[in-house]
Amino acid sequence: DAAGELCIEVGRSADAIDLFGRSIQLKPDENSCKYMNLGQLMAGHECLAHFNKGMELMYRELAEAAQKEDAEGHAKLQVDLCDEEGAEQKCEEFLTKAQGHKDDSPELWVQWANLRLCQCRPDDARKFTYKAVSLSNKVEEGHPNKPSLEVRTGMMKLLIELEQLDEAEEFGNGLLEVDDQYLETWYLLALIHFNRQDYSNAHQCTASALRILEAEGVEDEEQASKIQELHEEIEKNGG
Length: 239
Hints:
Number of helices: 13
Largest sheet: none
Structural class: mainly alpha
Order of helices and strands: HHHHHHHHHHHHH
Strand content: under 5%
Distance between the termini: 25 Å
Shape: globular
Oligomer: single chain
């Protein structure tokens, strides 16, 4: 799934469709995100079918989160939609319900930003992303309410998608000060430089990530694969 996301990010839609399709064949009842991603790449009935399956899994995840009485669990679910009638309204209701539980959750505002981005409302998406970043920055490092690095790299990814590359780079450099062994930070910094066609710095970032993988071993095959694929894309461009 991570490799499919990378293909989307570098404009290889056909490869993304193939990777998400294979993932669905192997694990059809896991990870709503792959159905949402695939739905955005398809059209007509295929788009609707993938979207409906993704929503089914998403609501299952929501029910499991609710059983654990974790209000922030609502906000951690991926909101990544194609333009089918009624879908956006359902997600609006879903996020509004979560907001009623805990409106100071950075995770919640990350997902509002995801929804607004999907709706082609980049100004609102940008506003909500900055709100998420602001809420996160107000919590001291080490405090139990501090968003995880996974959540914060999600904010960084949104900044990249919204073409706020300078802000994303600054935010990412701050995350390296917290943990310079966190692979996703290196990957996203590499992606920033790749988007700027700064292949030398992009190569340094993926090389750093690959050194960490070599030293610590591979715990997440999908993550290792997307780092390696981006590294190869950079080298193709002279990095």
